[in-house]
């Protein structure tokens, strides 16, 4: 069984601000998620900073490109020494195969993003699919896990079905975590930490509820209280 963990999304654009957040959350056994806002600007400087503070690194670049380009991108992430890297499962089987091939022999875990948690059912109409989000997430997750991807990013609402129907072990990574399911921001398929964990989530990805909190330690402690209880 995978140990349940929290990944804090370091979604800021300035390295000094990132440093202040990292100081506030230091001392916890956390994964820190670095997105492209910081990575495009600071590259190795930001990954080295996060690593020097003892955190595991989740590089959230959501690669989606032709197989050869993704192969090269994943190889660079291996060189960087990060722990997790996201790719879009919509990139197709060959792209996923190349991503998996590129990290072979390293400790890098590839996480496949299914349907972003900011999408609701009208997105399925937008992409011209007759599937529901649930069906598409399952199809993409199955393909990705079959290809050798280590983890699947989905909303909490799909996790139970994915864990039940995918026979191979995988890490379930769930963003869109909110204490209230009535949140009014850009997350459309959000869930409480209790719901996500009880559905089988292994890693909860949490950004604004921690980094924008008045007291970040207090906010983090509230999430840990749930993590230890569920
Ligand atoms: O489907 C997805 C995939 C990735 N994310 C990322 O997670 C965090 C969530 O931040 P919050 O502030 O807690 O909403 C953010 O970095 C996203 O890029 C996601 O939300 N949904």
TrEMBL record:
> In the UniProt entry, which residues are flagged as the active site?
60, 62, 65
GO: which molecular function terms? orotidine-5'-phosphate decarboxylase activity
- Asked if the Swiss-Prot or TrEMBL record annotates the protein with the keyword Repeat, the reply is no
Could you name the Gene Ontology cellular component terms for this entry?
Answer: cytosol
Q: Where does substrate bind?
A: 11, 33, 60-69, 117, 178, 187, 207-208
Question: GO biological process annotations for this chain's record?
Answer: 'de novo' pyrimidine nucleobase biosynthetic process; 'de novo' UMP biosynthetic process
Q: Which UniProt keywords apply?
A: Decarboxylase, Lyase, Pyrimidine biosynthesis
Q: Which reaction does it catalyse?
A: orotidine 5'-phosphate + H(+) = UMP + CO2
The record's top EC class is: lyase
Instruction: Tell me which residues make up the Orotidine 5'-phosphate decarboxylase domain.
Output: 5-223
| Entry-linked InterPro entries | Aldolase_TIM, OMPdecase, OMPdecase_AS, OMPdecase_bac, OMPdeCOase_dom, RibuloseP-bd_barrel
Database matches in PROSITE patterns: OMPDECASE
Please describe the quaternary structure of this protein.
Answer: Homodimer.
User: This protein is called what?
Assistant: Orotidine 5'-phosphate decarboxylase
What species was this sequence derived from?
Answer: Persephonella marina (strain DSM 14350 / EX-H1)
Lineage, broadest ranks? Bacteria, Pseudomonadati, Aquificota, Aquificia, Aquificales
Q: Which gene encodes it?
A: pyrF
